[in-house]
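Subject: Interface between my chains keeps coming out wrong

I've been trying for a while to get a sensible model of this assembly. When I model each chain on its own everything looks fine, but I need the whole thing in one frame so I can look at the contacts. Pasting all components below, labels as-is. Any help appreciated, I'm running out of ideas.
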Amino acid sequence: MTVLDNQNSSEDILPCMRRRELLMASAVGATAATLAPGVTMAATEGGAGTYPRLSVIRMSDLIEGEPVAFSYPLEEQPNMIVKLGTPAQGGVGPDEDIVAFSVLCTHMGGSLRGKYNHEFKSMGPCPFHFSTFDLTKSGAIVHASATQHLPQVKLEVDGDDVIAVGMNGLVYGYRDNLKDGSPVVMQG
Ligand code: FES
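Reply #2:
Try treating it as a single job with all components included. I did that and got this:
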């Protein structure tokens, strides 16, 4: 209602330009309301509640360069954990080289499953538009279309167990990493 009122009064001044601007603003608003909520949100901690603690894998079972898939913090959110063989930001374990990331590209949700490159310690290129992410630098973008880091799973080590305890960044398609899905089963 407010927009229409403004449109009527401003058309008296600059009819064509104002009308076009208002139509564009209206279209953007409509798009934002229908897109997957996570698409336009800035990277944050990605969840307003308490993250579950999930025992992901035993350190002794991880083989360098061989990613293992797991879901976190919701069953619908796919991730991978990998021992990079070189220290990384957020890395855990005695070599600080165990990291875990979402496998949903932050550009438009392309699947990065199977796209780990051990030579470059990177994820990608994404099959959709070739985005590639540096896993030693918290999932920073090194190539192409994405504008946000790949969300990184926060990890802790307890004895031989690697435990997921949180998430840095918003998983593609979610307004909140902890909503609109089934939480993984919480451990101890
Ligand atoms: S969806 Fe991955 S680069 Fe576009």
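Reply #3:
Confirming on my end. Confidence is low (pLDDT under 50) at residues 1-44.
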